[in-house]
Write a structure and sequence with these properties.
244 residues, Rossmann fold, Arc Repressor Mutant, subunit A, 2 domains, five-stranded parallel β-sheet, four-stranded antiparallel β-sheet
Length: 244
């Protein structure tokens, strides 16, 4: 956790973007769905605001003066594991989109974007954030136990051998989906649809990178996973009781 103590403020969304026209557009349409925005135009200032105050969502441009969006995303995830991040990218920044998702961004949207798509993605992110305790369809308050791995769905706490494991929002969502369905095999598109709630066209490698990071946190030997198994030629599944 950050050494700073995040404070409540009057804004719901922090927009870190140096194009004033995009900031104005975002502020206008987010206000239409009841969200108040705060805008910052430099990377350094944006990171400072992200760490010193609490927000429901950060909308983060990739190319910024000072720190770029990838570095900001990385630092936020190091200091604050749970705040949702929507990254803004250009069509030419294909590799950076992937890196952003691998560093812990919850979603990205490509400029120029439609307002309808932007609002749909914002609503999906916030809906997931509001429903962590019920994201697997399990009763709120239920504890899921798998050997040394325990998931508290009400408190959204994951622990391994009594040690709390810090997960990003997407890592947690993936784990709860798997743990709520032991033995069921999911292909990558099914995981994208279930966890991201809409299709990332061609971005199946996003699933791979998130699962690799999740395995690095919960598996004693990620190359020989105990919990999240690879189903060769198809996708992934969570271990059944007799395999643990």
């Amino acid at each position: 956790m950050s050494a700073l103590s995040p404070k409540q403020n009057n804004s719901d969304v922090l927009v870190i973007e140096d194009d004033p026209k995009i900031v104005e557009l975002l502020s206008l349409h987010l206000r239409d769905i009841g969200l108040i925005t705060e805008a910052v135009s430099s990377g350094n200032r944006g990171l400072k605001r992200a760490l010193e105050s609490e927000y429901k969502l950060i909308i983060l441009d990739l190319m910024l003066p000072g720190l770029d969006g990838l570095e900001i995303c990385k630092k936020i995830r190091t200091m604050d594991k749970h705040i949702p991040i929507l990254m803004l990218t250009a069509k030419s920044e294909e590799l950076d989109k992937v890196l952003g998702l691998e560093l812990g961004a919850d979603d990205y949207i490509t400029k120029p974007f439609s307002i309808r798509e932007l609002l749909a993605r914002v609503k999906a992110i916030l809906r997931r954030a509001d429903n962590y305790s019920d994201s697997s369809g399990q009763p709120a308050g239920k504890l899921l136990n798998f050997g040394e791995l325990q998931i508290d769905l009400e408190k959204r706490i994951v622990s391994l051998a009594g040690r709390k494991i810090e997960l990003t929002a997407k890592e947690y969502d993936l784990l709860v989906l798997f743990a709520g369905n032991p033995g069921r095999a999911f292909n990558r598109q099914q995981l994208l649809d279930a966890v991201w709630e809409y299709q990332f066209d061609g971005y199946h490698h996003t699933v791979n990178s998130h699962i690799n990071r999740l395995r690095s946190k919960i598996e004693a030997d990620p190359s020989e996973p105990r919990y999240i198994k690879t189903v060769w030629g198809f996708g992934y599944r969570f271990a059944e009781a007799n395999e643990l």
